Amino acid sequence: CKKLLLSPLSAPPCFKTRLSPDDSKLLHVTIPTTPPVDAVLGGSLTLPCLVSLAHPPPSPSTNGRHAVLSLPRVKWSVLTQGRETEILVARGDRVRVSEAYKDRASLLNYAYSPADLTLRLDGLRQNDTGFYRCEVQQGLEDADDVAQIKVKGVVFHYRDASSRYAFTFELAREACEEIGAKIATPEQLLAAYHSGYEQCDAGWLSDHSVRYPIQMPREGCFGDMDGLPGVRNYGLLEPDELYDVYCYVENIEGEVFHGSAPQRFTFWEAKAYCLSHGAELATTAQLYAAWNDGLNHCSPGWLADGSVRYPIVTPRERCGGGEPGVRTVYRYSNQTGFPEADTRHDVYCFRSKRTI
Do 133 and 232 lie in a common domain? Predict the structure, then answer.
C-alpha cells in the first residue's frame, strides 16, 4: 500500500490485494509514488496507474467471445469509512463512470494509451479522502495496486468579535489572514458544500461575491434558491458592504494541543500556559486544520483571537449536537461576541515544527 501524501489518515487498513507480488505473474499493475500527488479541497487529483498486460489485447480482426475475454477490464474504486465505492469501469473503448462521479472522474490517457490508466478526479471533496485501488482483470488473471489519499484543506465561517456582518471586503480578507488563513474561493466553498458543509450566514469570498452553503433549506436561509439545497449567491457586491467571511486553511507547520488546569484559565493565563509549554495560543485557522486532521476535544478553549472554541470529530449530544465541526462559545444568545477575557476556559496551544 502506498501513501502519496504525508498527511495522517485515520482510515481502515488498505484493500487486500488479490495477488501477492510474484514475478511469475504476467499481469502487473503499478501506481507510481513519484511525483507526490497533491490533493486539496476544490482542486484536482491525477493518480497515475500503469498496467503490463498478461498478453496483448485482441486485434481488430478478432471477434466473438475470445475477443471480449481478452480485452482487459479496468476498475477504479475507493474505500472510505469501511465502504468500497466504484468510481469507473472500462473495457475496450467503453468507459462507464458511476453516477456519484459523473462529470468529475475520467481516465486521462486511456483513449490513446490503453496501458495508462491514470485517474483524473476534479472538484475534490473532503469525503474523497480514502484508499484508491486500480484493478485490472484479463482472462483468468487479476492484479491491482492501492494508494492512500488525504484531501487537505477546510473552509470555515468567521465572524468579527463585535457583531454579525461587520466586515467590508478588505476587512474580511485581513481577518482571515490574521487568524492564519486565506479568504476562500467560490470553488473551495462549493467543494465544502458538496462535502456536507452548511452555514446560514452570508460571507465574503475571494472574488468579491457573497455566498453561503445550505443543505437543508428553511425560513431565513432560502437566499436566491427558494426551497432547493445549494450555495446561495448574492453576486458581486460593493466592497464596503458588510458581511461575515469564509476562510480557508490547508497546512499548518506544527501541532495543536489541548491544555487544562483544575481552575481553568483566563485569556491571559491561557497565553502564559502555552508559552510555558514552548508554544503559543493557537489561531482559529490552526484549530480548524487540526480538527480536519482528527483533533477531537469536548472542552471549550481559548484561541489567539480571544474566541473560545472546541473541535468535535465524533458528535455527542453533550458536546454541541449531532454534527462534527468546530463549536464556538459566544457571549450572547444571538451568536455574537467573544467571551470576556476574565472568564475561565481550557486552552488550545500551537507548537511549530521548529520547536517540536
Answer: no
Q: Which of 95, 126, 152 is the last residue of a domain?
A: 152
Q: pLDDT tens-digit profile of 212-239?
A: 999 999 988 888 887 899 999 999 999 9
d(CA 226, CA 232): 10
Task: Give the length of the chain.
Answer: 356
CA atoms within 13 A on the CB side of 307: 24
**CA–CA gap between residue 294 and residue 270 (Å, rounded):** 23
Q: Buried (b) or exposed (e) across 68-102, using 16+ Cβ within 10 A? A: eebbbebbbbbbbeeeeeebbbbeeeeeebeeebe
What one-character-per-residue DSSP string does 15-45 give? P--SS---TT-S-EEE----SPPP-BTTS-E
Residue found under cell 458538496: 194
User: What's the number of domains the chain is made of?
Assistant: 3
Round the average pLDDT of the chain to a whole number and report it: 87
* Confidence label for 17 from pLDDT (cuts 50, 70 and 90): very low
In a domain, 120, yes or no: yes
Picking from 152, 183, 210, the residue at the C-terminal end of a domain is 152
The pLDDT of residue 42 is above 70: yes
Domain that holds residue 85: 27-52+71-152
* Cα distances (angstroms) measured from residue 355 to each of 218, 254, 277, 279: 48, 9, 10, 8
Q: Give the integer Cα–Cα distance in Å for 349 and 227.
A: 42
169 φ, ψ to 5°?
Answer: -60, -45
Q: Are residues 158 and 147 in the same domain?
A: no
Cα distance between residue 26 and residue 146, in whole Å: 19
User: 356 burial class (0-12, 13-18, 19+ CB within 10 angstroms)?
Assistant: exposed
